[in-house]
Amino acid sequence: MCTARESFSSICKRSCVTWTAMISGYAKKQGMDEALNLFNAMEAAGETPDLVTVLSMISGCGQTGALGLGKWIDAYATMNCLKHNVVVCNALIDMYAKCGSISDSRDVFNTMPSKTVVSWTTMIAGLALNGSFEEALNLFNRMIELEMKPNHITFLAILQACTHGGFLEKGWECFNMMTKVYKISPGLDHYSCMADLLGRKGKLKEALKFIQDMPVEPDAAIWSGLLSACKIHHNIEIGEYASQRLFEMEPYVSFPYVEMANIYASAGRWDGVARMRYMMRSNRIKKSPGQSFVEVNGKTCAFTVEDRGHFDRDLIYAVLDGLILQSKEEGSSQHSDGTQKFDLEISNIE
């Protein structure tokens, strides 16, 4: 971004395309504060942001969870007569859902002058993302009743709703509807949803057979989902099979080692735990630090696991220590099988 900004600054006469390219770059890199500064500077320079500029800002807000800024962009779109554009409305539905404000997504969806299959799909996906699984199913049924033809992405959204909602029968119904009624060939993501759904419901043997019988080659995500299900349902045998596939596909990714170590730990198989630790050390495997974003007083803040460089670190860790203490007092700091405790232990072997 530094090189891009230098090139941008060297341009004397900047067009709307030039400004938008720079704004979009910051938005994609989670630099929404700077994206907003450029957006305002663009207007101050007499250049009017166009549809692409606004869409870049909306997308960036969704990626970083910048709800306050997202609402501001929504108001800007309304004042500049952009809300009549179905693409803008679809983007706003998606942005609000990713920011956790599903009520705002509903408001945009319900007040749209016209809706496309993308509008319905985006709303269904947003409801699923925010845990409103039954509402997502009801909206899908309403879509079918209105003879709006779902596409492969619509079915992916509804299958994800079924997966996370635990609706096995409805999941099979939608999967069969896709293939038999709408003649849509399932992709890897659709198969992954069904395998994940079977695993979450504890039908691990059926899930494994489903994966083995798939007409497409299963990827690491499918095996990872099955391995996670094995951890939940304490199945060592299938867990070992799934983890072996992952060791072959992604030998330097920490996930299967940590998951198998926890499966072994929950069963008291300390020899297996030791083997996973040895394999991680031998391959010099480390867990990648997680990162999250939160909007605080209109400013988007990024947080990285074990990052002690934040200027408010003392206050942050004081609050976290208080939350951990409260969790321990309420008895929620450890699972009954001890797996959460082991997660902390294995993260320290590095």
Summarize the structure.
The chain has 19 helices and 2 strands. With 350 residues, it is mainly alpha-helical.
Total strands: the figure is: 2
Number of discrete helical segments? 19
CATH first level of the largest domain: Mainly Alpha
Count of the separate structural domains = 4
In CATH terms, what is the architecture of the largest domain? Alpha Horseshoe
Q: What is the string of helix and strand elements?
A: HHHHHHHHHHHHHHHHHEEHH
Low-confidence stretches: 332-342, 344-350
The chain-level mean pLDDT equals 88
Radius of gyration: 24 Å
PPR repeats: 15-49, 85-115, 116-150
Protein name: Pentacotripeptide-repeat region of PRORP domain-containing protein
GO molecular function, one term: RNA binding
Organism: Manihot esculenta (Cassava)
Question: Could you explain the architecture of this structure?
Answer:
The structure is a single chain. The protein has about 350 residues and is mostly helical. The chain folds into four domains: about 1-110, Alpha Horseshoe (Serine Threonine Protein Phosphatase 5, Tetratricopeptide repeat); about 115-185, no CATH class; about 185-290, Tetratricopeptide repeat domain (Serine Threonine Protein Phosphatase 5, Tetratricopeptide repeat, Alpha Horseshoe), CATH 1.25.40; about 290-320, no CATH class. The protein contains 19 helices and two strands. The protein has a two-stranded antiparallel ribbon. A hairpin with a 2-residue loop joins β1 (about 290-295) and β2. It is globular. One of its GO terms (biological process) is RNA modification. This is Pentacotripeptide-repeat region of PRORP domain-containing protein.
